[in-house]
Specification:
Layout (H helix, E strand, L loop, with lengths): L3 E9 L4 E2 L2 E6 L2 E7 L9 E11 L1 E6 L5 H7 L2 E6 L4 H10 L7 E4 L3 E3 L9 E3 L3 H13 L5 E3 L5 H13 L4 E3 L6 H6 L4 E3 L4 H5 L7 H5 L8 H14 L2 E3 L2 H12 L4 H6 L2 H6 L6 H23 L19 H13 L3 H7 L2 H6 L16 E5 L12 E6 L2 E3 L18 H14 L4
Parallel strand pairs: 1-5, 6-7, 7-8, 9-10, 11-12, 12-13, 13-14
Antiparallel strand pairs: 1-2, 1-3, 3-4, 5-15, 15-16, 16-17
Helix pairs in contact: 3-4, 9-12, 12-13, 13-14
Bound molecules: zinc ion (ZN).
Zinc ion (ZN) binds next to loops.
Length: 432
């Protein structure tokens, strides 16, 4: 592949902001980040005035379906970390991404879960502590990038599972409901998802129904305890991936129409299945819950708890890629600077995943680049205009056109398509 250079008004390289520079790409790698006047005159220079060049984004929490691939690329997301899927299927997808219109894929294999599992078609069910360690060892030896524990894992299994995973060189991430984040963190879990486990920590004698707790008018009375829990989380050094875009989707679904892009590009049934009927009352509870979650994430940011950007698509019917930009704006709302938010989806994500070739624009990095209209160092757009995407050296100079590659057919056969169909059947069966 030919050597070429890209320039824009500014470049965020994953660590700092540079002006009057260009990124040089050869094959699937970046071979230089140089002053504009040092770009060899015989090199094609692709200029994007009015734009910011950033490393291709990493969505650190999502569940892969094939239809999502082009949409991620359309929004400049060049790596996704699958946080729970059918093991054999996701390993095949991870193998196949270079040949497809997909981002590169990191994966955790199945949700390791207790009995009964929350999402049986994408889970491995565990019934006792010995089976728990075996499940971790077998999943690790299949070649996954990390281990994911789900909500029904018994509290006393967590430490042996973490030990087995760390012995295999893999980090452990957890959906911590119902034991709480502190129990998980003390057992050695490296990363927690969705903030929702916090409830067990801040309001142990809570009324039932976690949504109603976060959205409860009296939740603010736990404020002192929230501060203590935030302090303890900071001491444990556990990473937060709050997936605020998912929370946000839940009140929007009940109080507003989907975004235009969601209506146009999320497969119709999938949007319906992951939506709720308009319901102003529950919508307001979800809105308060989302505000409380954003506020709590703010407490973690004040304490320098590391944060990663993940969207949880396809849950909530949110559009892959766009949902990660939404996550970045919500992280800014929680207290990150625009550059801090970008870091959560680039260099910090790559560091946590131990993939030094990703998340930065420097010599030797993978040629994963997004060129976005506007000054991203000042404002993170909710609806970004992506001008150009490079994924592993492959150019997409009309990224928006990738959205048209969507097809409604096929997604039902993917594990999460089948899982969602099962959920939907359960949801409508009481009416039948
Ligand atoms: Zn998830």
């Amino acid at each position: 592949m030919s050597v070429r250079a890209y320039s824009a008004d500014r470049i965020y390289d994953g660590d700092t902001v540079l002006h009057d520079h260009a990124v040089i790409v050869e094959g699937d790698s970046i071979t230089g980040l140089v002053k504009l006047n040092a770009v060899p005159s015989d090199l094609p220079l692709i200029r994007h005035p009015g734009c910011t060049i950033i490393p291709g984004l990493i969505d650190t929490h999502m569940h892969f379906m094939r239809w999502q691939g082009p949409a991620f690329l359309a929004y400049g997301v060049t790596t996704v970390r699958d946080t729970g899927n059918d093991l054999d299927w996701i390993l095949q997808c991870r193998e196949a991404w270079p040949k497809e219109t997909w981002p590169r894929i990191l994966c955790m294999g199945p949700l390791l879960d207790g009995d009964p599992p929350g999402h049986p078609l994408v889970a491995r069910t565990i019934t006792d502590v010995d089976a728990a360690a075996v499940a971790v060892r077998e999943t690790a030896s299949s070649g996954v990038d990390a281990i994911k524990l789900y909500a029904s894992i018994a509290a006393e299994w967590i430490a042996p599972m973490v030990e087995a995973s760390h012995a295999a060189g893999l980090k452990v991430s957890m959906h911590c409901l119902p034991h709480g984040v502190l129990v998980a963190g003390r057992a050695g879990v490296d990363e927690f998802y969705h903030l929702d486990g916090i409830l067990a920590d801040v309001w142990p004698d809570r009324p039932s129904g976690w949504l109603y707790v976060w959205g409860d008018q009296d939740f603010c009375q736990t404020w002192d305890r929230q501060l203590q829990v935030a302090d303890e989380i900071a001491e444990l050094g556990i990473v937060s991936t709050p997936t605020l875009a998912y929370w946000d989707s839940q009140w929007r679904r009940r109080l507003q129409d989907p975004y235009d892009e969601e209506s146009r590009f999320v497969p119709g049934d999938l949007l319906t299945w992951s939506s709720a009927d308009p319901d102003p009352e529950t919508g307001e509870v979800w809105r308060r819950a989302t505000e409380a979650a954003v506020r709590f994430q703010g407490l973690l940011l004040e304490r320098d708890v590391p944060v990663l950007a993940g969207s949880d698509t396809p849950c909530g019917g949110i559009l892959p890629g766009q949902s990660l930009w939404r996550e970045l704006t919500l992280l800014v709302e929680a207290g990150l600077s625009p550059l801090g938010a970008l870091r959560a989806a680039t260099s910090d994500a790559a560091d946590f995943c131990e993939r030094p070739e990703l998340g930065r624009l420097r010599t030797g990095s993978a040629a994963d680049i997004a060129i976005v209209r506007g000054d991203l160092t000042a404002t993170i757009p909710d609806q970004p205009e992506i001008e150009h995407v490079v994924r592993a050296g492959v150019d997409y100079d009309q990224p928006a056109a990738l959205l048209q590659e969507f097809h409604d057919s096929g997604w039902r056969d993917d594990p999460w398509g089948r899982q969602m169909a099962l959920h939907w059947a359960k949801r409508i069966s009481p009416k039948a």
